[in-house]
Amino acid sequence: MSPLVSIRCVTKSYGRGSTAVKALDNVSLDARLGELVQLTGPSGAGKTTLLNLISALDRPDMGEILVAGANVTGLSLSKAAKYRNEQVGIIFQSYNLLPQLTALENVLVPMIPNGRVDRERAFELLDAVGLVDRSAHRPAQLSGGEQQRVAIARALANDPLLVLADEPTGNLDDENARNVMTLLFRTCRGRGNTLIVVTHDRDIMRTADTVFELRNGIIARVRATDTKERPGPKLKA
Amino acid sequence: MIWNKIIFGGLGRRGFEAVVAGLVLAAASALVAGSLMIIEGGRYALTQAERTDRPEIVQIRSRFNRALFETPRSGNLPPLTLPVYEPLIEPEQLSSAARDGMIVARQSLFRNVVSSDRFLNVYIFGIDPVAEGQVSGFPLTRGRFLRSDDGAVAVLDEASASALGVDIGKTFPVRKADGEDLDLTVVGIIGKLELRDAPPRTVEAPALTENSSFVSSGVFVTLHTSETIFGRTALTDALVIARTPADVPSLVDNLRETFRLEPGVFVTERYSQFSRKVHDFVLTLSLFTLIATATVVLAGSFAANLLHDVFADRRRHYAILIALGVSPARVAHAVLSLGLAVAFAGTITAVLTAVFFRPKEFALPSLMANLGTIEPRFNLLVAAVIAATALAAVALGITPTGWRLLRRPLATALADNRG
Questions:
Q1: Does the beta-carbon distance from A100 to B324 stay under 8 Å?
Q2: Is B325 touching A (CB cutoff 8 A)?
Q3: How far apart are CA A90 and CA A195, in angstroms?
Q4: How far apart are CA A107 and CA A111, in angstroms?
Q5: What distances in angstroms separate CA A140 from CA A96, A148, B1, one per listed residue?
């Protein structure tokens, strides 16, 4: 079975000259359809950069990223937006809800580009994350956990193949974090979405199908639940 | 509904800044509009002056003198002496002095049409119908105007026709220099006389415009006919049309030089006065352009800065929309809609202020002494400049946000903590 996401020899640097920092160095990984993938590693390891590249929010310096067989590294701004809208659901650490809209309206936003603003589906999604009774509330009237649950509902609005979550529990307390992560995993597993999540949560490692540990821009270690732990590419000196 | 909330909602305190930006734009645009309206008023006044003053026309005329006029054949009235132009301008001299200027020659006469027991004063003008038509207006109510090859025919105004008791096809006598009468046949009646540089009204005669100090009526014949009546070819007055207004000074010098030995010939021009009006207009243009430019730069920058804050604050919102798959074009539409709403509100407020609070008259004696009082004018140019000013301020306010969104990775905008 061909992978849904295939990352091949991707390199990404920030800055120029002597101040240049290599965020990713020749990284390659695959994620199958329906697979729950965890990216972990210390701060600055390149986890968020990798998610940004997969979601075409940024471009790699080298290498290619194939999602459902299509290269997403060189997309124009509008094609990248179309790709994200149709195939990717993104969950940000800082939620990134629009403060002027209610929870329901925030879930409806990804439906605007394809012209099908389906309120019933938005209610269903809010129901799935347990927030149907808070649908008319604005983000400022919701707790952090509730906001992140709205963000999860929003990410699933267009029923994407791929869900990317960047430290979705980073701003939450332990209990809320556990709830949100359980909800995210359960929802993606139930819908057959591929989930790539950046998190330091060690409990998740037991649930994820594959865990990639990044260090200094390279994959230091890979652990798959169905196979024995295997070492990643050699760490750079 | 959602889209409107996305565009205009959640501005928070930046909403206040957007309103202030709109008000600043409105105030600045109103000031710019005021300045431009004065400039446009001045330009209109200058155009009108150019049209009415015709600075390229030079008038040459003989002095007034008293002439003896006959009185009715019956009765016991003494002959009259009345002021008329003296025929002192020889056509050949005038032609050589005018060089390439066009000559509108005239013999302005005064005659009394005498019947057995009464007489009527009438002004008689010998004119070149073609040349005169370029400077004067003869709106006909009946009949036709003169032709160059016409003989003893006349076109006269309604008042004179009524006083003489004639109409189209009828004749009336005019005494010639040799004492014989010449019967003139009426071929046209004019309703209003627009004779450029008409002679002063000196005696009672039928008039189309009562109480005018200039002749407003008369009998018009061809120069050939007037020469027959007058018994000489010398002109009483003439207009010389220079090729361009700039040629007027040399033309005037030439005419004065040619007629320097004839103290009874006067040369007058309006070019100098018109030049002073042009000078006034240039000063007005400079001053108010300076005011408008300074206002645009200062207030426009201020408004642009406020708008920049508004849009910079929303940069992350726009980035979120693009990250969620909304097309950049649609996001640009959202950005522009907010900007244009501010610009539109500012422009409309400015236009209404400018139009409703526009003074009917504006005078600046120290600057516009010769231009006089002008009427500030609101026109499309003023509206276009106001709109352009507002749009420029909005464009300046939007550009940094648009640049960052389009030229930098979206991830950078999403990581931006502002907003």
A1: no
A2: yes
A3: 10
A4: 8
A5: 12, 12, 20
With beta carbons less than 8 A apart as the criterion, state whether A155 and A188 touch: no
Q: At B284, list the tokens.
A: 């007005």
Q: Which residue of A has its CA nearest to B7?
A: A100
What is the least distance, in Å, from the CA of A100 to any CA of chain B?
Answer: 4
Interface of A with B in 182-221 (CB under 8 A): none
Q: Is A109 in contact with B316 (Cβ distance < 8 A)?
A: no
| Structure tokens belonging to residue A129 | 């994350």
Rounded Cα distance between B344 and B203, Å, is 62
CA distance A165 to A89: 8
Contacts of B325 in chain A (CB under 8 A): 81-86, 110, 113, 158
Report the pLDDT value the prediction gives residue B152, as an integer from 0 to 100.
92
Q: How many CB atoms lie within 10 A of CB B4?
A: 10
Q: Going residue by residue through chain B (419 aa), what tens digit of pLDDT does each one get?
A: 788 888 888 777 788 888 888 888 888 888 888 888 888 888 888 888 888 888 899 999 888 776 666 655 666 666 666 667 788 899 999 999 988 889 999 988 777 776 666 677 788 899 999 999 888 988 999 999 999 899 999 999 998 888 888 899 999 888 887 878 889 999 999 988 888 888 877 777 777 788 777 888 889 999 999 999 888 898 989 999 999 888 999 999 999 999 988 888 999 988 888 888 888 888 888 898 899 889 888 988 888 888 888 888 888 889 999 999 999 999 988 888 988 898 888 888 888 888 888 888 888 777 777 878 888 888 888 888 888 888 888 899 889 888 888 888 888 888 765 44
Q: With CA atoms as reference, report the closest residue to B160 among B131, B184, B136, B179.
A: B184
| Assigned CATH class of A32-47+76-231 | alpha beta
> Touching check for A117 and chain B: CB below 8 Å?
yes
Residue with tokens 């009426």: B186
Instruction: Using the structure block, give the residue that is written with the tokens 């821009």.
Output: A217
| CB neighbours of residue A36 within 10 Å | 22
**CA B189, CA B144: separation in Å to the nearest integer?**
8
CA A188, A192, B317, A72 torsion-angle sign: positive
Beta carbons within 8 Å of B417's beta carbon, 6+ residues apart: none
* Cβ pair A100:B5 closer than 8 A: yes
Contact B5 A58 (CB under 8 A): no
B65 touches chain A (CB under 8 A): no
Dist. CA B126–CA B107, nearest whole Å: 5
- Tokens representing residue A168 in the block: 């979705």
Measuring CA to CA, which residue among A182, A104, A199 is closest to residue A142? A104
Contacts of B275 (CB under 8 A, 6+ apart): B55
Three-state DSSP at B101 gives coil
Minimum distance, in Å, between the CA of residue A233 and any CA atom of chain B = 27
Distance CA A127, CA B77 (A): 119
Give dist(CA B227, CA B244) in Å, integer: 31
3-state secondary structure A203-219: HHHHHCCEEEEEECCEE
A162-166 and A218-224 as β-strands: parallel, antiparallel, unpaired?
unpaired
In angstroms, the Cα distances linking A86 to A128, A162, B82, B192 are 21, 10, 101, 79
Are B39 and B285 spatial neighbours (Cβ–Cβ below 8 Å)?
yes
Please determine, for the modelled complex, whether the ipTM score is greater than 0.85: yes
Bridge-partner residues for B109, per DSSP?
B124
Distance of CA B78 to the CA centre of its chain: 49
Are residues B239 and B103 in contact, defined by beta-carbon separation less than 8 angstroms? Answer: yes
